[in-house]
TrEMBL record:
Transmembrane segments: 197-215
Record has Magnesium as a keyword: no
Gene Ontology molecular function: mannosyltransferase activity
Keywords: Membrane, Signal, Transmembrane, Transmembrane helix
GO biological process assignments: GPI anchor biosynthetic process
Annotated protein name in UniProt: GPI-Mannosyltransferase II co-activator
GO CC term, one of those recorded: mannosyltransferase complex
Phylogenetic classification of the source organism: Eukaryota, Fungi, Dikarya, Ascomycota, Pezizomycotina
Signal peptide from the UniProt entry: 1-20
Length: 240
């Protein structure tokens, strides 16, 4: 009995307590496209990349109050690469509740971005802001990291819009919005039904259910004699 209780208590302590907000978008991996190696390439954009193997990143995203020109806030672009065609995915953005922000997430296929002036202009503006200075020692890194041959891959562009969602008497915070620290998580679905990150939770629930079943049987064995004794005592009192 004690061992069962101790095991259940240990499992309970394994749960993480989180105080955060979450925004997500669910999508299906697109068909593969041919990625050329002639510049400008995807590497030249210098976007942060998420893949099923490198599936989480912590970033400080710029945010701003909505305006007429940017009603949804500041735009950040990322690349979701090495996806599987037809595979279901969930992309989550998690951030602290102490940084009130409204996030809007959209995914676009490569041809859609290329053929839409508004999207390609936004992407070009963001990519230009990430280019290093000419005298930076990192300028040559992109060339050395390029793939030598064209390759087929399933990829999507992720657009994150971050709008500050608060009001304060602090004039500094109202004049200049601080970057929002976020966790970006690319979560593939197992059998296109269950997010991979939920597998430990499902395992935890199954283990707790099994332990509860065995524990209930032990408790029932102990309770039955007590109930039977109380029943006999009640019958004796009635006879008297």
């Amino acid at each position: 009995m004690r061992s069962v209780f101790a095991a259940g208590l240990a499992l309970a302590f394994c749960l993480d307590i989180a105080c955060a907000n979450t925004e997500k978008v669910i999508f299906v991996g697109p068909e593969t496209v041919n990625v050329p190696t002639m510049p400008p390439t995807l590497e030249d954009l210098r976007l942060d990349v998420l893949t099923p193997d490198d599936w989480t990143k912590r970033l400080d995203l710029k945010a701003s109050f909505p305006t007429g020109d940017t009603p949804s806030g500041t735009t950040t672009w990322l690349l979701l690469d090495r996806l599987t065609h037809g595979q279901r995915y969930e992309l989550r953005v998690c951030w602290a509740a102490t940084q009130p922000t409204a996030f809007t997430l959209d995914v676009f296929e490569l041809p859609t971005v290329w053929d839409t002036p508004e999207l390609i202009s936004s992407l070009a503006t963001y990519a230009f802001s990430r280019q290093p200075e000419k005298d930076s020692p990192d300028v040559g890194d992109t060339t050395s990291q390029r793939k030598k041959h064209e390759h087929e891959t399933s990829l999507l562009f992720l657009r994150v819009l971050a709008a500050a969602d608060y009001f304060t008497d602090n004039t500094t915070l109202m004049a200049q919005v601080e970057p929002v620290s976020v966790d970006l998580i690319l979560d593939p679905f197992l059998l296109n039904a269950l997010p991979r990150s939920l597998l430990p939770t499902v395992g935890y629930v199954v283990v707790v259910a099994i332990l509860a079943w065995f524990l209930s049987r032990r408790i029932l064995v102990w309770i039955q004699p007590v109930v039977a004794a109380e029943g006999k005592s009640a019958e004796k009192k009635k006879r008297l």
